[in-house]
Amino acid sequence: MMEGVVAVRDFTRLCESLADSTGEIHYRIETGLIVSGRAFMRLEASGKLQLQCQRCMQGFGWHLAASSHVYIARNVAELDLWDRQAEGLEEAVLADGQFDWFAWLEDEILLTLPAVPVHSTEACPTDQIVPQACKPNPFAMLATLKQHQKLKS
Ligand SMILES: [Zn+2]
């Protein structure tokens, strides 16, 4: 089992997606065997990241909770075998000591980030200052039209 803390600024690729690089990531990597005897590695990561809201462009704290696993093949033959099996669709790596766990950790954090980070509706100042400025509610417009028609008739 491996456990530790990495400063957010050490993840260069991740920092490109953040509003700023303050904070740290706690990680935990465990290895084990599933019933079939296959070895696996499980990763868990958590921390607070500063994302940029794509609605108001302000930074906000976002809680990361990532988890993933990979199977560890003992040799190339086993890796090939898994590739041909249905389970081959799952992630598998070779147990050759070359595995870059840091890159794996960063990849998993990147995969967990929201595609379009936005504040929650209550927290986003844009929504409070100009409610529905960009997107008029079509149902509200329809209601207004109906009212006009009633007045006319
Ligand atoms: Zn916002």
From TrEMBL:
One of its GO terms (biological process) is ribosome biogenesis. It comes from the Bacteria. The keyword rRNA processing does not apply. GO terms for cellular component: cytosol; ribosome. InterPro entries: YceD, YceD_bac. Keywords: Ribonucleoprotein, Ribosomal protein, Ribosome biogenesis. It holds the Pfam family YceD. Belongs to the DUF177 domain family. Plays a role in synthesis, processing and/or stability of 23S rRNA. This is Large ribosomal RNA subunit accumulation protein YceD.
